[in-house]
Design brief:
Blueprint lengths: L10 H22 L5 H17 L3 H9 L10 H12 L1
Helix pairs in contact: 1-2
Length: 89
Amino acid sequence: MFDDPSPRWPLERVLFALAGTMTLVSAALAALVSPWFLLLTAFVGVNQWLYVLVGACPASIVLRRACHLRSAIYENPERASASRKQVTA
């Protein structure tokens, strides 16, 4: 069941946790401080769609470089985007 000796989370799991945390924080801030904090929720949603469509978003790039996280879906993100371009062309 647990064949991977590394206890590290894959990139997608960290992104999901980060997006959920930021959404909850922005909803709480919107309720308690100012409704303008809902823009943070919109920013999180746009970044999630960016990751779905392109395979990368600003948070994934930072996490990949700073924390050396690897994707569970894409072995090589550059190769994945290149193959996507070939399919659409």
